[in-house]
Amino acid sequence: MLAPRIVAQQVGPPANIDFHDGSDTMKGGPEIWPSAAPGSFMVGYTVVHKYDHTRTFKPKKAALKIKWLGHSSFQITTSGGTIIVTDPIEFKGYHMPPNLSADIVTVSHEHPDHNCVDAVSGTPVVFRGTDKRLSTVNEIDTTVKDVRLYTAPSFHDPGHHGVNAIFVFECDGIRIAHLGDIGTVLTDDQITAIGGIDILMIPVGGQFTIAAAEADTIVNQLDVRKIVLPMHYKTAAFDDLPYSVEPFLAGKENIRRVDGSEFTVEIGAANGVREYIVLRY
Ligand SMILES: [Zn+2]
Description:
The protein is mainly beta. The chain has a single domain (63-273), classed as 4-Layer Sandwich (Metallo-beta-lactamase, Chain A), CATH 3.60.15. Helices cover 7% and strands 30% of the residues. It has helices spanning 188-194, 212-221, 246-249; strands spanning 5-8, 31-32, 45-48, 63-70, 73-77, 83-86, 104-107, 125-128, 141-144, 147-155, 163-171, 174-178, 199-203, 227-231, 255-257, 262-266, 275-278. It is globular and about 45 Å long. The chain starts with a strand and ends with a strand. Bound molecules: zinc ion (ZN). Zinc ion binds at residues 111, 113-114, 181, 208, 232. Residues 111, 113-114, 181, 208, 232 line the site of zinc ion.
Protein backbone atom coordinates (compact mmCIF):
# COMPACT_ATOMS: atom_id res chain seq x y z
CA MET A 1 0.00 0.00 0.00
CA LEU A 2 1.21 3.46 -0.81
CA ALA A 3 2.39 5.30 2.29
CA PRO A 4 0.53 8.58 2.80
CA ARG A 5 2.60 11.67 2.20
CA ILE A 6 1.26 14.62 4.08
CA VAL A 7 2.29 18.22 3.79
CA ALA A 8 0.83 19.99 6.77
CA GLN A 9 0.27 23.63 7.47
CA GLN A 10 2.77 26.40 7.50
CA VAL A 11 3.81 27.16 11.02
CA GLY A 12 3.70 30.54 12.63
CA PRO A 13 6.20 32.93 14.10
CA PRO A 14 7.99 32.03 17.31
CA ALA A 15 6.40 32.77 20.64
CA ASN A 16 6.76 36.42 21.53
CA ILE A 17 7.09 35.58 25.18
CA ASP A 18 9.97 33.45 26.36
CA PHE A 19 8.51 31.11 28.95
CA HIS A 20 11.51 28.89 28.86
CA ASP A 21 13.44 28.42 32.06
CA GLY A 22 16.79 28.64 30.29
CA SER A 23 17.78 25.12 31.19
CA ASP A 24 18.88 22.96 28.33
CA THR A 25 20.73 20.30 30.18
CA MET A 26 19.31 16.91 30.91
CA LYS A 27 20.66 14.07 32.89
CA GLY A 28 20.14 10.52 31.79
CA GLY A 29 19.51 9.26 28.30
CA PRO A 30 19.67 10.87 24.90
CA GLU A 31 17.62 13.91 24.03
CA ILE A 32 15.97 14.37 20.68
CA TRP A 33 15.74 18.01 19.65
CA PRO A 34 14.56 19.51 16.36
CA SER A 35 17.32 19.29 13.80
CA ALA A 36 16.76 22.82 12.48
CA ALA A 37 19.20 25.44 13.71
CA PRO A 38 18.01 27.36 16.78
CA GLY A 39 15.95 30.34 15.77
CA SER A 40 15.20 29.07 12.30
CA PHE A 41 11.61 28.91 11.21
CA MET A 42 10.03 25.81 9.91
CA VAL A 43 8.34 26.83 6.68
CA GLY A 44 6.64 23.58 6.02
CA TYR A 45 6.28 20.19 7.53
CA THR A 46 6.43 16.98 5.63
CA VAL A 47 5.38 13.75 7.21
CA VAL A 48 6.21 10.58 5.40
CA HIS A 49 4.97 7.76 7.54
CA LYS A 50 6.19 4.27 7.02
CA TYR A 51 2.88 2.80 7.99
CA ASP A 52 -0.64 3.04 6.87
CA HIS A 53 -2.52 5.10 9.43
CA THR A 54 -5.72 3.19 9.20
CA ARG A 55 -6.22 0.89 12.15
CA THR A 56 -5.57 -2.41 10.47
CA PHE A 57 -3.42 -3.74 13.30
CA LYS A 58 -5.13 -5.96 15.80
CA PRO A 59 -5.44 -4.87 19.42
CA LYS A 60 -3.74 -7.35 21.71
CA LYS A 61 -5.47 -8.74 24.74
CA ALA A 62 -3.50 -6.82 27.28
CA ALA A 63 -3.78 -4.30 30.07
CA LEU A 64 -2.23 -0.88 29.79
CA LYS A 65 -2.15 1.54 32.73
CA ILE A 66 -2.64 5.28 32.56
CA LYS A 67 -1.99 7.59 35.50
CA TRP A 68 -2.59 11.34 35.54
CA LEU A 69 0.36 13.21 37.05
CA GLY A 70 -1.37 16.60 36.79
CA HIS A 71 -1.97 19.17 34.04
CA SER A 72 -0.79 17.56 30.76
CA SER A 73 1.40 14.94 32.37
CA PHE A 74 0.46 11.28 32.18
CA GLN A 75 2.32 8.10 32.94
CA ILE A 76 1.50 5.34 30.46
CA THR A 77 2.70 1.85 31.31
CA THR A 78 2.46 -0.72 28.53
CA SER A 79 1.72 -4.37 29.19
CA GLY A 80 5.42 -5.00 28.55
CA GLY A 81 6.33 -2.59 31.38
CA THR A 82 7.61 0.29 29.24
CA ILE A 83 6.89 3.62 30.92
CA ILE A 84 6.11 6.79 28.99
CA VAL A 85 5.81 10.15 30.78
CA THR A 86 4.24 13.01 28.84
CA ASP A 87 4.86 16.71 29.57
CA PRO A 88 6.39 16.42 33.07
CA ILE A 89 5.46 19.33 35.30
CA GLU A 90 6.93 21.00 38.40
CA PHE A 91 4.87 24.16 38.38
CA LYS A 92 2.34 25.86 40.67
CA GLY A 93 0.72 23.13 42.76
CA TYR A 94 1.71 20.26 40.47
CA HIS A 95 4.69 18.10 41.31
CA MET A 96 5.98 14.89 39.84
CA PRO A 97 5.97 11.93 42.23
CA PRO A 98 9.39 11.35 43.82
CA ASN A 99 11.49 8.67 42.12
CA LEU A 100 9.36 8.73 39.00
CA SER A 101 11.29 6.87 36.35
CA ALA A 102 10.53 6.38 32.68
CA ASP A 103 11.83 4.85 29.48
CA ILE A 104 10.38 7.60 27.29
CA VAL A 105 9.69 11.26 28.12
CA THR A 106 7.89 13.51 25.66
CA VAL A 107 7.67 17.32 25.73
CA SER A 108 4.94 18.80 23.55
CA HIS A 109 6.55 22.26 23.65
CA GLU A 110 9.09 24.16 25.68
CA HIS A 111 6.96 25.91 28.29
CA PRO A 112 7.69 25.40 31.99
CA ASP A 113 4.36 23.71 32.69
CA HIS A 114 5.30 21.00 30.15
CA ASN A 115 9.05 20.47 30.02
CA CYS A 116 10.27 19.57 33.52
CA VAL A 117 12.28 16.61 32.32
CA ASP A 118 14.67 16.86 35.26
CA ALA A 119 11.81 15.73 37.50
CA VAL A 120 11.96 12.29 35.88
CA SER A 121 14.68 9.93 37.01
CA GLY A 122 16.22 6.94 35.29
CA THR A 123 17.70 7.20 31.82
CA PRO A 124 14.72 7.95 29.62
CA VAL A 125 14.97 8.86 25.96
CA VAL A 126 13.67 12.44 25.94
CA PHE A 127 11.76 13.57 22.88
CA ARG A 128 11.56 17.37 22.62
CA GLY A 129 8.63 18.22 20.37
CA THR A 130 9.74 21.78 19.59
CA ASP A 131 12.75 24.05 19.83
CA LYS A 132 12.89 26.51 22.73
CA ARG A 133 11.30 29.36 20.75
CA LEU A 134 8.42 27.22 19.52
CA SER A 135 9.34 27.90 15.90
CA THR A 136 9.95 24.32 14.79
CA VAL A 137 8.24 21.01 15.41
CA ASN A 138 10.52 18.03 15.63
CA GLU A 139 9.61 15.41 13.08
CA ILE A 140 9.78 12.12 14.90
CA ASP A 141 8.80 8.62 13.88
CA THR A 142 10.68 6.01 15.84
CA THR A 143 10.35 3.00 18.06
CA VAL A 144 11.58 2.58 21.64
CA LYS A 145 11.09 -0.87 23.11
CA ASP A 146 7.46 -1.83 22.45
CA VAL A 147 6.32 1.72 21.66
CA ARG A 148 6.25 3.36 18.25
CA LEU A 149 5.92 7.13 18.59
CA TYR A 150 5.54 9.90 16.05
CA THR A 151 4.72 13.59 15.97
CA ALA A 152 2.34 15.81 14.07
CA PRO A 153 2.62 19.63 14.12
CA SER A 154 0.10 22.12 15.46
CA PHE A 155 -0.09 25.70 16.56
CA HIS A 156 0.14 26.56 20.24
CA ASP A 157 -2.81 28.53 21.66
CA PRO A 158 -5.62 30.12 19.61
CA GLY A 159 -3.40 33.14 18.82
CA HIS A 160 -0.79 30.95 17.12
CA HIS A 161 2.04 32.12 19.38
CA GLY A 162 4.38 29.38 18.25
CA VAL A 163 4.05 25.71 17.57
CA ASN A 164 3.28 22.58 19.55
CA ALA A 165 3.93 18.91 18.91
CA ILE A 166 1.20 16.31 18.96
CA PHE A 167 2.66 12.98 20.09
CA VAL A 168 1.11 9.70 19.01
CA PHE A 169 2.02 6.40 20.69
CA GLU A 170 1.32 2.96 19.29
CA CYS A 171 1.57 0.25 21.90
CA ASP A 172 -0.31 -2.92 22.78
CA GLY A 173 -2.09 -2.67 19.46
CA ILE A 174 -3.79 0.64 20.12
CA ARG A 175 -3.01 4.27 19.34
CA ILE A 176 -2.87 7.04 21.95
CA ALA A 177 -2.59 10.73 21.03
CA HIS A 178 -1.43 13.51 23.36
CA LEU A 179 -2.31 16.88 21.87
CA GLY A 180 -0.11 19.11 24.06
CA ASP A 181 -1.16 22.77 24.04
CA ILE A 182 -3.05 22.62 20.79
CA GLY A 183 -4.66 25.94 19.93
CA THR A 184 -7.01 25.22 17.05
CA VAL A 185 -9.18 22.48 15.63
CA LEU A 186 -7.47 20.13 13.20
CA THR A 187 -6.86 20.51 9.49
CA ASP A 188 -7.41 17.54 7.18
CA ASP A 189 -3.64 17.13 6.93
CA GLN A 190 -3.32 16.95 10.68
CA ILE A 191 -6.11 14.40 10.94
CA THR A 192 -4.30 12.24 8.39
CA ALA A 193 -0.94 12.71 10.10
CA ILE A 194 -2.35 11.72 13.50
CA GLY A 195 -4.26 8.69 12.28
CA GLY A 196 -7.15 6.82 13.89
CA ILE A 197 -7.07 7.19 17.65
CA ASP A 198 -8.25 4.93 20.46
CA ILE A 199 -7.29 7.08 23.45
CA LEU A 200 -7.04 10.88 23.31
CA MET A 201 -5.44 13.26 25.83
CA ILE A 202 -6.87 16.68 25.06
CA PRO A 203 -6.64 20.14 26.69
CA VAL A 204 -9.94 21.77 27.61
CA GLY A 205 -9.01 24.68 29.90
CA GLY A 206 -8.91 27.50 27.33
CA GLN A 207 -6.72 30.61 26.95
CA PHE A 208 -3.40 28.85 26.24
CA THR A 209 -5.18 26.04 24.43
CA ILE A 210 -8.55 25.17 22.99
CA ALA A 211 -11.58 25.04 25.31
CA ALA A 212 -14.66 22.79 25.40
CA ALA A 213 -16.24 23.56 22.02
CA GLU A 214 -13.05 23.08 20.00
CA ALA A 215 -12.20 20.00 22.06
CA ASP A 216 -15.54 18.46 21.10
CA THR A 217 -14.80 19.21 17.46
CA ILE A 218 -11.40 17.51 17.66
CA VAL A 219 -12.82 14.43 19.42
CA ASN A 220 -15.21 14.10 16.50
CA GLN A 221 -12.57 14.91 13.88
CA LEU A 222 -10.42 12.05 15.19
CA ASP A 223 -13.44 9.81 15.78
CA VAL A 224 -11.88 8.70 19.06
CA ARG A 225 -12.76 5.08 19.46
CA LYS A 226 -12.32 4.31 23.12
CA ILE A 227 -11.35 6.92 25.74
CA VAL A 228 -11.08 10.71 26.01
CA LEU A 229 -8.94 12.07 28.84
CA PRO A 230 -9.38 15.83 29.39
CA MET A 231 -6.27 17.67 30.66
CA HIS A 232 -4.79 21.15 31.08
CA TYR A 233 -7.76 22.69 32.88
CA LYS A 234 -8.29 24.83 35.95
CA THR A 235 -7.80 22.99 39.22
CA ALA A 236 -6.95 23.93 42.82
CA ALA A 237 -3.32 23.10 41.94
CA PHE A 238 -3.32 25.34 38.85
CA ASP A 239 -5.99 28.02 38.85
CA ASP A 240 -4.59 30.29 36.12
CA LEU A 241 -6.78 28.80 33.41
CA PRO A 242 -10.29 30.05 32.61
CA TYR A 243 -12.14 26.74 32.68
CA SER A 244 -12.33 23.67 34.87
CA VAL A 245 -13.14 20.32 33.31
CA GLU A 246 -16.89 20.79 33.90
CA PRO A 247 -17.84 22.85 30.81
CA PHE A 248 -16.27 20.13 28.67
CA LEU A 249 -18.20 17.38 30.47
CA ALA A 250 -21.52 19.22 30.42
CA GLY A 251 -24.22 17.29 28.58
CA LYS A 252 -22.05 14.25 27.94
CA GLU A 253 -22.94 10.68 28.73
CA ASN A 254 -20.47 7.94 29.53
CA ILE A 255 -18.44 9.98 31.97
CA ARG A 256 -16.36 7.99 34.43
CA ARG A 257 -14.95 9.91 37.39
CA VAL A 258 -12.21 7.74 38.79
CA ASP A 259 -11.63 7.97 42.52
CA GLY A 260 -7.89 8.12 42.07
CA SER A 261 -5.23 9.10 39.56
CA GLU A 262 -4.93 5.82 37.70
CA PHE A 263 -6.94 3.31 35.72
CA THR A 264 -6.33 0.25 33.60
CA VAL A 265 -7.33 -0.06 29.96
CA GLU A 266 -8.44 -3.57 29.12
CA ILE A 267 -7.42 -3.50 25.50
CA GLY A 268 -9.01 -6.73 24.39
CA ALA A 269 -12.33 -5.80 25.95
CA ALA A 270 -15.14 -5.02 23.58
CA ASN A 271 -16.04 -1.38 23.92
CA GLY A 272 -18.22 0.26 21.37
CA VAL A 273 -18.91 3.35 23.44
CA ARG A 274 -16.59 6.30 23.77
CA GLU A 275 -15.87 7.03 27.42
CA TYR A 276 -14.81 10.30 29.05
CA ILE A 277 -12.57 9.56 31.99
CA VAL A 278 -11.71 12.14 34.65
CA LEU A 279 -8.85 11.35 36.98
CA ARG A 280 -7.91 12.94 40.29
CA TYR A 281 -4.60 14.59 40.96
ZN1 LIG B 1 0.43 24.72 28.91
